[in-house]
């Protein structure tokens, strides 16, 4: 049987049918409600959100160096991935896309908690994390992480600076099963995530903090040349279990 090669899609670039992350509270809702247990989350998921809010602190500025990564990873690890009745309402899928990004909570505006649904054989482009921390837990299926070093000649400041094009070679490939947690940051390099199955959907929970990518965008990289360009990743397929309105005049289909 021939091997099914993952088909990669841009890292959530301009898909129609999406909405902005970290949406502000409706005018009629007091801001203090953002610190309460979310009424849309149930059981252990609500407790997870409450604990993540406590770890990250009240709504204010946050620098990447101030994040207690170990505490966040341990708390995400403790969440029971078998509670599918809790996270399934946020796992909205679309067979026409490589994967969907579904918002769960913005954690005091200090982080983005998302549920991603990966269609069989599909994945992300190689990308950075805009100097933020990324914690991923597989909830269902399997995810393969392929890591890369930043391209030779990358100066750490301007990802789009001119340099000699060259092929980017993977430095590690790891497949995670349900319940396993991974961590990624720009200090560790670049990565792409993909669903290795040719028939099964994969679902994962992602925590990004600070939410730099949603605010400022990130860079995706061409594996054949190492060249990069900045993309907008502030859009979602759904938010808090509700599919977002079509996003008109925004990028590609």
From TrEMBL:
Keyword Nucleotidyltransferase: no
Matches recorded under Pfam families: CDO_I
Keyword Endoplasmic reticulum attached: no
Note on how the cofactor is bound: Binds 1 Fe cation per subunit.
GO molecular function: cysteine dioxygenase activity; ferrous iron binding
GO BP term (any one): L-cysteine catabolic process
Cofactor: Fe cation
Catalytic activity: L-cysteine + O2 = 3-sulfino-L-alanine + H(+)
Positions bound to Fe cation: 127, 129, 191
Record key words, sorted: Dioxygenase, Iron, Metal-binding, Oxidoreductase, Thioether bond
Signal peptide range: none
Gene3D superfamilies the record matches: Jelly Rolls (2.60.120.10)
EC number(s) on file: 1.13.11.20
Cross-link (3'-(S-cysteinyl)-tyrosine (Cys-Tyr)): 134-208
Family: Belongs to the cysteine dioxygenase family.
Protein name from the UniProt record: Cysteine dioxygenase
Species per Swiss-Prot/TrEMBL record: Blastobotrys adeninivorans (Yeast)
Lineage of origin: Eukaryota, Fungi, Dikarya, Ascomycota, Saccharomycotina
